[in-house]
Structures are given as structure tokens and as C-alpha cells.
Amino acid sequence: MASSAPIGVFDSGLGGISVARQLRKSLPHEQIIYFGDSANAPYGIKPPEEVKKLSFAIVEHFMQLNVKAIVIACNTATSAAVNDLRAHYSIPIVGMEPALKLACDLGKGKPQRVIVAATELTLREQKFANLLNRFSQNNTIFSQPCPDLVRIVEQGNLNNRNIVFDALHKYFDEYDLESIDSVVLGCTHFVFYRDYFREFLPAHTNIVDGNEGTINHLRKILEERGQLAEDSQEGSITLTNSDLSERMQNLAKSLCK
Fold this sequence. Notes:
Number of strands: 9
Shape: globular
Order of helices and strands: EHEHEHEHEHHEHHEHEHEH
Strand order of the largest sheet: 4-3-1-2-9
Helix content: 40-55%
């Protein structure tokens, strides 16, 4: 596969734009094709087999576009489909998981109290159970599904402070937040709320997401395969979506800035 070939990035909707946007900054010479499946969002409340079927359809679409690698910019789709996708396709497929290791490592050996905010399916799947087993012996981990945080982005209400803070209070008021060391943003939609979380949480509480780690992993794979884009190539990002409405197109563009 030529180094000039594009990278496919997909999500259940608009959340993965946070990954594509970071990818554009970190690897500025790459051509990125983003696909958001907003017509079928949210994935987090669907059965795993349905998410797997949708993910295979998207990857097959990317294969027709001759991408050199695919990033599943969706923790839920990663949980449901990444192993089967890797078994079926030969190109690199990079998934995402809640950055629990990063949050726990911030304690530098001291036990941490961490809230993992994610979708219901991500928190139910075996992939997260395995992650939890690795870190729950020495740390206190709370799993918090936040489906409204996906809907708010998809409905274009991210700038409505009242709606956002009502949702944050709904999900997090039950916790003694002063005792929480980190909140993991375990859904790419939630990365758009980073400033809201910073205002909502105590100053000492870390806000952690997996976007940078995912991109670093992709860069390493492309380097090893000799497939990083040449510096002479002009990078780009193309936004596509299963919801073809003008509203969705404009919303995607606004989130990519």
C-alpha cells in the first residue's frame, strides 16, 4: 500500500471527529477520510452483533477507497468488532479503549479513585471487563454510563450550557468528586466536553482521554510499515456521514475546527 493512500477513521456519529481533528494536527501530511454513522447513532445502546454488522459495512466501504489503515474512533465499536475486523482484513485496524491505564499511572504507584465515563455497551463488553480486572485490584474504579452526552453532541446542543450541566449533574452528583483523582472520557463524543468537565470537576481531578495514545500507536504502525505520508504531501480531511442532511454536514464541520 502506498504511503500516499488515505487513512479511514470512523465512529458511530460525530464523536470520532475529535480523533480525526487530533490526527490532522499530529500527522499533518496524511489524507484522512472520516465517516460518522449518525443515521444509526448511538451505538452504545445497540446489541453487540448489530454494532459489529454496522462496523463491517463501514470498513468494507473504506476498503473500496483503498485506505492504508483504519482507526475505529469509537470505544463501543472497538469493543464489539475490532477482533473480528482484524481477523478479516489485512490492513492495520487501530481501536480505542478507555484510557484507564493512563489514569491509574498518574498516581505513580499510589492507589487511584477513577470514574470511567463511557457508553453502556463499552462498559458491558468483555474488553472493558478485562481492562477493569487489570487495574481494580490496586485502584477504585467507578463505571458510569452517560448516554445523554452522546445525544447532546449528535443533536447539536453542545453549546447549550444548561443542557450540558444538567446531564453532568445527572450522572456525577452521586459521587464525592473531591475524592476522585481522575475522570476517564471513555467515549470520543465526551472529548468535546473537556472544558465543561474542567469547570465541573475539582481542580485536582485529572481529565483523561485516549485520543493521543491512539494516534501515537497509529504513527508507530505506519512508521514500521514505511507508510507514513511524505512531507511533500498536502494533508487533508474529508468528512462524510450516513446522515446526509445539511444540518449534520454543518455540525460536523463546526466540530472539526
